[in-house]
């Protein structure tokens, strides 16, 4: 009788232990090995900047997209919180509240079970790649920075990049002659777009004005009726009796516009007035008189650079 009691006791203990193990497995499967836990690990890894580890997760696919933004230097900081996990047809839709740069948004990760770990726990992967298709266009220059990452967009784009979801990307441009207001984009899945308007800086405008003034001064120093490579000239019917003298009576203001080729610029709309003074002899009676005329002109130049020096080349049309 005693032996029977001992056996029953051991059987009861085994049953209790088995139940505890099964319960533990169930609890672990619903917590530490759940879809939300997988999402949490993904977000932690992403927030730590371990992008290479993120890209190795099952279901992450950037095929057909420009991968250059998949770089730790490109991604900005953000905070996140998992606020929902809904399962339908085997796919878990894990909703994340994202806060970055004072803005808030929500992203959804689509997860599915892809196998079993340790023969007991579910293994997860992405049912839909956690990437945002980010379409980038620039005007004024091909060069920009994304976070701390230097980048070039050929011909100003558009170019479609793979961006991590969620992810914060700050687009900017700062150089000696150009600038752009920073544009911040939070990648929340699907598609997003960025238009970065790169414009002349005050230093560029000042340098263009100095170059324009120098070019017009060089034109005025030519003692001919039609200075070579210059936007003004004057034809007369009588005989020239002295060297023509030019002065710039109204100095035009430089206005810079993007050339049709992204990254190059044109100076246009420079409307000014040149003043001509020359002695002329009448072909009718041989008398000599002084001719003075104000000659309006409009200047157009291509803008180039010789090192850090701005150089102007005459152009009929800024788009030429």
Describe this structure in words.
With 320 residues, the protein is an alpha+beta fold. The protein folds into 3 domains: 2-130, Roll (Nuclear Transport Factor 2, Chain: A), CATH 3.10.450; 132-200, Sandwich (Immunoglobulin-like); 202-314, Nuclear Transport Factor 2, Chain: A. The chain is built from 4 helices and 18 strands. The strands form 4 sheets. Strands 13, 14, 15, 16, 17 and 18 form a 6-stranded antiparallel sheet that branches. The protein has a 5-stranded antiparallel sheet with strand order 7-6-9-10-12. Strand 15 (256-258) and strand 16 form a beta hairpin. It is rod-shaped.
Which features does this protein show?
320 residues, alpha+beta, Nuclear Transport Factor 2, Chain: A, Immunoglobulin-like, 3 domains, five-stranded antiparallel sheet, 4 helices, 18 strands
